[in-house]
Amino acid sequence: MLLVLTLKKTTTSQKQAGTQTSDIAPVNFEQAFNELETIVAQMESGELALEASLIAYKRGDFLLQFCQRALSDVEQQVQILNERNKLVLFKQDD
Fold it and tell me: Which of 13, 21, 84, 85 is the most buried (most CB within 10 A)?
């Protein structure tokens, strides 16, 4: 499933509420990765306006960090599995 990214200006009410499109967390790694691929393709096309490019960049940065955290968590689980020969759920310290 390919997600289509809609770039729009953040309205005043969204700013006041503290919700920006770039801060909405994806459901899972796959969703984040697919959206990130879409953003990269849009940016590489060169068809985005300057403001839309900035919004896309911020969202892409947020998604990249999300994906890196998800991969790090999985890597930790694999290390635990390798050490004990069974998978133990990893609990991240927040």
Answer: 21
